[in-house]
C-alpha cells in the first residue's frame, strides 16, 4: 500500500476557493480504483495550512491517479495558490 502526505500553506484569502475545489476533487478521487483513503485537514492554529492524506492499493493505482484529467486540472488550479510550494511524501506501508 502507498501512503501519500501532501502539506502546504495556501495564499491568504484563497482558502475558501481552494476548499470548494478540493471537495469536488475529493469526491472524484474516492471513486477511483485503488483509492483506500482520501482525507484532508486544516491546521486549527494556522487556518491556511492543509494536510492531505491518501492511501492507495499499490504504486500502479497511485500512478494512474496522478494522470487522471481531474487531478491534472486541479493541480493546475491549486499550485499557484501555494507561494511556498507543496511538500509531497510517498511511503510504502505494509500491514503485516
Provide a descriptive summary of the structure in words.
The longest helix has 16 residues, at 15-30. The protein has a single domain (2-92), classed as Alpha-Beta Plaits. Helix 1 (15-30) runs antiparallel to helix 3. The chain is globular and about 40 Å long. The model has no long low-confidence stretch (mean pLDDT 96). The chain has 96 residues and is an alpha+beta fold. The protein has a four-stranded antiparallel beta sheet. The protein contains three helices and four strands, in the order E-H-E-E-H-H-E.
Brief write-up:
By secondary structure, the chain is α+β, with helices and mostly antiparallel strands. The chain is built from three helices and four strands. The termini are close together.
Secondary-structure map:
Blueprint: E1 2-9, H1 15-30, E2 35-43, E3 46-56, H2 59-66, H3 69-78, E4 86-92
Antiparallel strand pairs: 1-3, 1-4, 2-3
Helix pairs in contact: 1-3
Helix-and-strand structural type: alpha+beta
Distance between the termini: 11 Å
Count of helical segments? 3
Largest sheet: 4 strands, antiparallel
Count of separate structural domains = 1
Number of strands: 4
Strand content: 35-45%
Order of helices and strands: EHEEHHE
CATH topology: Alpha-Beta Plaits
Based on the structure given, which CATH architecture is correct?
A: 2-Layer Sandwich
What is the CATH class name?
A: Alpha Beta
Can you list the strand order of the major beta sheet?
A: 2-3-1-4
Helix content: 25-40%
Low-confidence stretches: none
Report the average pLDDT across residues.
Answer: 96
- Which shape, going by the Cα principal axes? globular
Amino acid at each position: 500500500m502507498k501512503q501519500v502526505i501532501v502539506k502546504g500553506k495556501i495564499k491568504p484569502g484563497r482558502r475558501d476557493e481552494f476548499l470548494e475545489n478540493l471537495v469536488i476533487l475529493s469526491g472524484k478521487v474516492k471513486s477511483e480504483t485503488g483509492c483506500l483513503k482520501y482525507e484532508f485537514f486544516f491546521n486549527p492554529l494556522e487556518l491556511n495550512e492543509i494536510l492531505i492524506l491518501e492511501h492507495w492499493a499499490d504504486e500502479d493505482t497511485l500512478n494512474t491517479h496522478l494522470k487522471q484529467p481531474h487531478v491534472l486540472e486541479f493541480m493546475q488550479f491549486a499550485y499557484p495558490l501555494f507561494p511556498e510550494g507543496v511538500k509531497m511524501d510517498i511511503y510504502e506501508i505494509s500491514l503485516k
